[in-house]
Amino acid sequence: MIYISESKFGGSKNALIRRIQQFLASEES
Which domain of life is it from (predicted)? Predict the structure, then answer.
């Protein structure tokens, strides 16, 4: 159960980081 929740959180975290990076990139340019 812990492994499954960690995997889900990891995927959500990666998606969130991508959104933040895209937001920062669009702000800079």
Answer: Eukaryota
DSSP 24: H
> CA-to-CA distance for 6 and 13, rounded, in angstroms?
10
Structure tokens at 17: 């980081």
Residue 24 CA to residue 8 CA, distance in Å, equals 25
Q: What is the pTM of this model?
A: 0.51
Question: H helices of the chain, where?
Answer: 2-28
The string of pLDDT tens digits covering residues 3-26 is 666 666 677 888 888 999 999 999
